[in-house]
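Blinded run. Sample ID left blank on purpose so nobody reads anything into the name before looking at the predicted structure. Input follows.
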Amino acid sequence: MFVWKEGKPEDCGIPAKAVAGLENMLDEMRVRIHGYMLIKGDCILAERYYAPFHRGSLHRMYSVAKSFTALAVGLLVKNGLVKPEDRICNYFPEKLPEGGAHPWCREMTIRDMLTMRTCHASTTFKRYGGKDWTESFFRVEPDHVPGTVFSYDTSSPHVLAALVEKLTGKKMLDYMREEMLDELGFSKEAYMIPDPAGVSQGGSGLMCTLRDLAVVAHLCNRLGTLQGREYLSLDYMREAVSCQVPTDLHPVPDEQQGYGYFFWKPREEGFTFFGMGGQLAVCFPQYDFCYITMADTIGNPAGVQTLHDCFYRTVFPYLKASGTSGMGGVQDHGGMYQSAFEENRMQDFRHMEKELRERTQALSYVFYPNALGWEEAGFDWEKGAVSLAVSGSRFPIVFGTEEWVQQPLPGTEYFCECRGHWKMGHFILECYVLYEDMGHICMDFAWKDDRMSVRTVCAGEVIGKEMKAHFQGFASAVDSTLHHGT
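Blinded prediction complete.
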């Protein structure tokens, strides 16, 4: 049974004034904090709860449940019950519509789901008439090729929780208890809220204590091995907490660093369990350290970002300065290994980007029918231009890779400046309006075999209703040389 040790921040180079500064800043910023912990290895450096919450309080962790679902899938993989490459439709034939699922749904893999690269633009059970949330995933019409662009879809972890329960015959948390949580000292009272059909809400239903979250975060910091026992395979865990897909189109810094298997990447090297309202476990394997919070920032658009900022301004500088030493000789338990693994992945992505630029130079793509009205797209990487055909209109977007390029904003009398960059095999194109009113259009292009998908977002009053209809959503296309009608 895992047991926490008591430590002091000073033991690893973090002065008491830094912890006091964190608490004071959270108070000054009026963050509705319910509790927080700072842990280094198996030692609790700081822990505080704010009334009426206490150490034993079960707290709604919202999307932290997604990370737990990723770990439950990791247990299935370790036990030989599934592989990440498996296609999800093969496990739920009874949920498919009459005549079979849409082709894009049929090709979707468990890995696509873990990385939020499904064929759906948003959570399907919120758009489905029935009470079967799992069924909705296979019956709601998809709108883009899976395995391409990032789309935050809570129905994805929900279906994976249903998969865990179908294959094991147990509730997801019960399965995890038997495999690892009981030995970690996870509270017996913790539970998962079910959906109307009784399936655990793997996307948002976790109810547990702050210490429950802390011990699972500690296990993940050690890449699945704790006290000499491998609970989750190293190969799976290093993939899970690595950057798998860019998330540049999200609005705030700590959501723009990329995504793993239901884990977010923070601004510094590490990974984050992230639940709505300020449920966080920000993990730094190279320091064997976690910053963990439970809060209620719902309704405060800057609340979660403030939780991050307060930590990075007060405690993190001392943690970074202290390096991996401290706490009586705690050694690296995966941080350096993970850093090398991620660097190798980035090298692979850079090689992929070079091949993509060569293969798609001057190539045109024809879009499948889509709500955006996009018809064609062509790329000239040598000249720095993307050519678009949208609802009968054709226009180029010229971009720089280092400098911004000014040009008319298509379809308006305004000017904008554009810049593009490659990231993890994706091309991110940003266009910012230069006018009395400001606004922007940003696009994420991703390729899969001979197909391409785009996710586009826009904001600002200067972006009119008609333009928003063309630049807020998803679409997929196929190499025009292979196009024979869609």
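Unblinding after everyone has recorded impressions. The first helix runs from residue 16 to 28.
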